[in-house]
Amino acid sequence: MVGLTVSDMDRSIQFYTQILDFEKVSDAEVAGPAYEALEGVFGARLRAVRLRLGDELLQLTEYLTPRGRPIPLDSRSNDRWFQHVAIIVSDMDRAYARLRQFKVQYASTGPQLLPKTIPAAAGIRAFYFRDPDGHPLEVLQFPPDKGDPKWHRPGNRLFLGIDHTAIVVGSTRASLAFYRDLLGLRVAGESMNFGTEQEHLNNVEGARLHITGLRAAAGPGIEFLEYLAPRDGRPFPSDARANDLVHWQTTVLVPNAAAAVAAVRRGAFRLVSQEPVELPDTVLGFRRGFLVRDPDGHVVQLVEP
Predict the structure, then answer these.
(1) CATH superfamily of 83-229
(2) CATH class of 2-70+244-303
(3) Which of 186, 193, 268, 279 is the most buried (most CB within 10 A)?
(4) pLDDT digits (tens, 9 = 90+) for 277-288
């Protein structure tokens, strides 16, 4: 499951359910010392809403107190705080028309068809846009020879589900040490993406990316976006907190949270929750877990099943 912080829950629910066909499956308000310890935010009172699209869940969190900071208005796709979810569609032309109908904010110049010069991505159609808070999102259509077979099942749905979450990383090697070597995700594929189509998809002139896809046994994948050029993307704010709107978190299941936090400490990764936290309920979908930052500052939530 992937989650993000929003500023106005009712507005975000309307956006995701009316435009993108997500379905609300839970809506709860929580507060107390356990949630403060988990999120690393004193005085936190949260409204957490889980949305479903196909088989995947997206969690929206609004901090009723304390309010956090907005996403920088000049954010670019190569800044290290960039993260999005890739929403698979059955028909890019229909999806783009739907997004235009609702006047979404563009992040790409328009849908892009990735060329044969990028063999691992050839035939993929993709478009970046933004939600009401400025979070980047992607709609993506796989050609018949690419993507999970479930994305090619016959049906009349337009928005099918979430294939992966993509994060900008400074070093693929450093990120692999965290996601592959520590968390046990497997590398599912790599690609070198470049050219005018990629530049206009990311809206970054001269973009040349090393892309690495990782998968667990189930659920959406995680995709590294390492910009080989340009190298002027800004680092993740060192003082970012979970109530700031740049905050996303990717949930990974671990067999034992205590063992996982010990491994995190051995790897000298930065903890948000200082210890595994036992929650008083399962409103967030788990009872015990903690938050940690990856080498670039992206937050991962490690929870016991």
Answers:
(1) 2,3-Dihydroxybiphenyl 1,2-Dioxygenase, domain 1 (3.10.180.10)
(2) alpha beta
(3) 193
(4) 999 999 999 999
